[in-house]
Task: inverse folding
């Protein structure tokens, strides 16, 4: 198959898994799905931006070549010349998003289920894509599912050595926001995933003017809705305080993990009842 045909084939397989997997269901409600149709795009595995992430994110952030090499117990130089990154965005359904609209201090039960069980589904999707590629005779790895994946903390707060949102940015799926969220054409309420492979796929262009191009605060300095929505006071005009956000999730609403019977409750108030909830609000704004 040609590169474009292969890319379309993989995209269709990802969408089919989202449509048909029983894991993409809210517990005790077979009729309510967790995620809508995904967005799927691709990045060149040796795009210079991945090296830049060592400065932007942390020196420990892996490049796709390093991530695949570690998984295959090879040297980065021993891998094929061309690598690709498959990146996807899983938009949260309207019903779940709207369940969070009246909330002012804590997430709705449906939102917490989406955060916990939705990421379990996302893990299953990562394995599904890896298995598909291996069956095609390719090397493939989902870095977040590897033993080497780590979440660390510095003076700015938690960070990881493989950031799904930054991978999605590299694949041209959207840009960042004042709240540190990732605004796609389907909005900011979603989960991201990715897989690295030696399959040669056409890189999707990054068309955004800059890495904040989809956020109205940076476009016209008029929107501050996520600041108002944050119950932890972790968002200001200076950006997102990751430490205050983490402490609120762990200490102030940590009790929800037991109440909702989930491992992680999430919050998501800054991702709902805001202009970027389900769309790119800057799409028609005059810059």
Result:
């Amino acid at each position: 198959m040609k590169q474009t045909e292969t890319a379309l084939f993989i995209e269709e397989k990802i969408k089919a898994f989202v449509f048909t997997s029983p894991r993409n269901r809210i517990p005790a409600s077979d009729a309510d799905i967790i995620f809508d149709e995904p967005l799927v795009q691709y990045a060149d595995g040796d795009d210079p931006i991945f090296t830049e992430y060592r400065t932007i994110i942390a020196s420990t952030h892996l490049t796709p070549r390093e991530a695949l090499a570690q998984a295959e117990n090879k040297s980065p130089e021993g891998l094929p010349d061309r690598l690709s990154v498959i990146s996807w965005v899983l938009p949260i359904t309207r019903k779940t998003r709207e369940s969070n609209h009246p909330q002012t201090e804590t997430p709705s039960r449906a939102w917490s289920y989406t955060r916990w069980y939705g990421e379990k589904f996302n893990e299953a999707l990562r394995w599904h894509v890896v298995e598909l590629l291996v069956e095609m005779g390719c090397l493939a790895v989902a870095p977040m599912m590897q033993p080497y994946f780590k979440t660390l903390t510095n003076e700015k707060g938690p960070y990881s050595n493989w950031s799904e949102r930054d991978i999605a940015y590299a694949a041209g799926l959207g840009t960042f926001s004042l709240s540190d969220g990732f605004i796609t054409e389907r909005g900011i309420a979603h989960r991201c995933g990715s897989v690295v492979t030696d399959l040669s796929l056409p890189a999707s262009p990054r068309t955004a003017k800059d890495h904040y191009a989809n956020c109205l605060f940076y476009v016209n300095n008029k929107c501050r809705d996520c600041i108002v929505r944050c119950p932890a006071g972790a968002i200001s005009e200076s950006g997102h305080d990751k430490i205050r956000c983490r402490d609120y999730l762990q200490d102030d609403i940590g009790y929800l993990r037991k109440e909702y019977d989930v491992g992680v409750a999430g919050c998501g108030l800054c991702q709902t009842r805001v202009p970027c909830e389900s769309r790119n609000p800057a799409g028609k704004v005059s810059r």
Summary: The chain has a mean pLDDT of 96. The first strand starts at residue 25 and ends at 26. DSSP finds ten helices and twelve strands in the chain.
